[in-house]
Each structure stands twice: as C-alpha cells, then as structure tokens.
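ok so for the tutorial part 2 we go from a plain amino acid sequence to predicted structure tokens. step 1 is just haveing the sequence, like this:
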Amino acid sequence: MASPPFVRLRYCEGRTYSAAREFLEEVESLAKTVIALRPTRMTSEPPPTENSVRPLKVFHRDSRYGSDLHPADMAWALHAACRGLSEQQIREQIIGARDLSKKGEPARQLDYAERTARKAVHAVQPLR
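step 2 — the prediction. this is what the tokens look like for a chain of 128 residues:
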C-alpha cells in the first residue's frame, strides 16, 4: 500500500479539474512563501556538489550493507569512479579505510583493493 502523499485513484472520468488553474496558482504561491521563509542554513562544510565524493566510512556505516563491508567497498568504489577518481585513488582509499587483515597477507589485501578499484572504474567507463 502506498504511503502519503500518494493516494489511490478509485474513479476517473478523464476530465480536467475545473479549478485546476486556481489550484496550481495557489500551490505555486504557497511554495514561494515557504521557500522565502526557509531559514538559510549555515554549515561549516561546503555544500555537496555533483562531483563530490562521500567518504568511504559513510558507506561502511550504511545499514544497507549490514556487517559485510565488501559490498560497501564496492558501492563506494563505483560512487568514487563515477565522480572521476582513478583506480589508484580508489585503491588507496580502500586500503587505508579499514583493517583488511581478514583478507590474508598484505599482498592479498592489496589484490582485493586493486580488484575492487579496477571493477568499479571499468564499470563506469562506458558512462563517461
């Protein structure tokens, strides 16, 4: 079942609402009023831009991934690759973000980070 603000249409005759113009004018007026009254937000961080890369730790804490950090690493790597980070930059972030000792020896840890970075960069190359 849909939740608000959605409603279920039970009947439709296919006609336009007779007071549509007035209704839309009122909604636009209310929207302008709300925007004008909205306080300006003061933050110490710059506003995010389309190309800003969220920290890997944010992905590690995301409940979507539970306690499995491999999908979180891959999701972040794709996110970073879409925003222009190189394979090397992605690999370095993955290596430095958490303890990878359960992946095995340092060579295997590096291999994990390289594979993840390579897959992400190659997955987004056709998008560029």
